[in-house]
Design a protein that fits this description.
Belongs to the FPG family. The chain is an alpha+beta fold. The protein contains eight helices and ten strands. The protein binds a DNA duplex through loops.
DNA sequence: TAGCTTGTTAGTTA
DNA sequence: ATAACTAACAAGCT
């Protein structure tokens, strides 16, 4: 589920656990997960310490005391877990950063869509990958420009990381719901009011999600996300409801751009 | 069980 | 050349 709020939560977790400890070893179960060859990765990082972090969209960058930059992308199912005893090694922790302190950071990737590697620099990486400013940093002007220059359904345009960075399939549905915009509105036909609502809703949804450490079950009841079907604990399941918060109709779902899309046919009408 | 899945990108088409 | 769209990627879950 790693959209922007998860990655921000991982970033804070990493900062709280992994800084300033010499790296003793790196264990890689499957080298396909690396974007840097294994020898270079270990030769560069062993003996160094992590000193600070930066997040842009769904990308986490970690700086070391030796001037290197490590990049992590969490794909669809990535996670981090810091632990001590090797008996506690989490399931699917396919890359381990083993610190001299005896603690370990597990990079968890059940479906192997995740990636780790060294990058030359954050700005160069973002430019090469055509990643737009972070969804919490982008200006209304730049967002407006990036939306209007495209001619497609607004949902896939917002999912495109070159429009704005950090929005994934669940957040985009929530943003469009809060902004009261149908996911199949054409991006180049949105007026200033509508784009303004997308801009505000993006910040509101992301800030709320980060506050709750991306724990969707705890989101406010007027969020559309409670209509989604997902794997939750029985506690969270009790908060799930298919009725739109507007209380007029049930939410519906369809495919937009090949992705499952939830929306309220009453609140989000095609114009 | 066969079909679904949160992200990204190579490949195809226009 | 560029933009839009689709399918594929890997593996786990139901």
């Amino acid at each position: 589920m790693p959209e922007l709020p998860e990655v921000e939560t991982y970033r804070r977790y990493f900062e709280a656990t992994c800084l300033h400890q010499p790296i003793e070893a790196i264990d890689v179960e499957d080298r396909k997960l690396l974007t840097t060859d294994y020898a270079t990765l270990t030769e560069t990082l062993i003996g160094q310490t992590f000193v600070s972090t930066k997040r842009v969209g769904k990308n986490l960058f970690i700086y070391t005391n030796g001037g290197s930059t490590l990049h992590m992308h969490f794909g669809m199912t990535g996670d981090l877990e810091y632990y001590h005893s090797s008996l506690d090694r989490p399931r699917h922790a396919r890359i381990l950063f083993i610190f001299k302190s005896g603690f370990n950071l597990g990079f968890i990737c059940p479906r192997k869509f995740e990636r780790i590697g060294l990058v030359e620099g954050v700005d160069a990486y973002l430019k090469k990958k055509k990643i737009a400013p972070d969804a919490l940093d982008i200006s209304l002007e730049e967002l407006t420009y990036n939306i209007r220059k495209r001619k497609s359904f607004i949902k896939p345009v917002l999912l495109d990381q070159s429009t704005v960075a950090g929005i994934g399939n669940w957040i985009v549905d929530e943003v469009l719901f809060q902004a009261k915009i149908h996911p199949e509105m054409l991006s180049n036909q949105l007026n200033d009011s509508e784009i303004g609502r997308i801009f505000s809703a993006t910040r509101y949804v992301l800030e709320t999600a980060i506050e709750h450490e991306a724990n969707y079950g705890r989101f406010p009841q007027h969020f559309l996300i409670h209509s989604r079907e997902w794997d939750v604990s029985p506690y969270e399941d009790a908060g799930r409801h298919k009725r739109c918060p507007c209380d007029k109709v049930e939410t519906e779902h369809m495919q937009v751009g090949g992705r499952t899309t939830y929306y309220c046919p009453e609140c989000q009408v095609l114009r």
